[in-house]
Fold this protein.
Amino acid sequence: MILKKNNEAGRSMVEMLGVLAIVGILSIGGISAFQKAMTKHKINKTTEEFSQFINELLRYSKDLKRMHTNNETVEQAKIASSIEFFLPSTWRRQYENLYDSMNHRIYPFIRNDQTDVRHKYLSIDYHMPRGKDNTQFCIALYDMAKPYAEVIREVFVYTKATESEQTKVQTAVWGTIDCKKNRKCLNDITLADMKRYCDTCDNEKEGCSFVLMFRL
């Protein structure tokens, strides 16, 4: 009788430990799922704010074009101060740079065409400091850019392992008007393409930058 009770107590203890182990696994899984959901929400919210910012920026593109100078730092400061009034509420300006709610640095400026200075483009450099979610965020930015294909000249990602290292530029993808010959079109890129372009963003010590160039 005593042996039977001991066996029952042993089984109860083993069953209890099994239940606790399952609860622990479910808890870890639940936390992981929650963290992934929060990351996705944060990325979606930030890219939505960035899209709203682009819409406002394009509305004032002619005014910004008139601010163009040969001194990029002065120009960035002028542009940043002039557009501060329509920044999303979670963004901030610091001198010539803008920062979003994830502390990503954004700086818009006017860029000359390399072959014809009469043509100018509104360039937005979106810099992501080193972080584990950068690749995921970079892919979201490519998706965000697709609806602007008619007014975009090109989109590309560049990375630098150190401040002194030469910039590494990934393959440019082109907007509808400029997508000619063997160029990769923004509207045609796949998830596999985006992953390949964004793959280095999580590893580089200096992070990576996502660049959009709009036709003016």
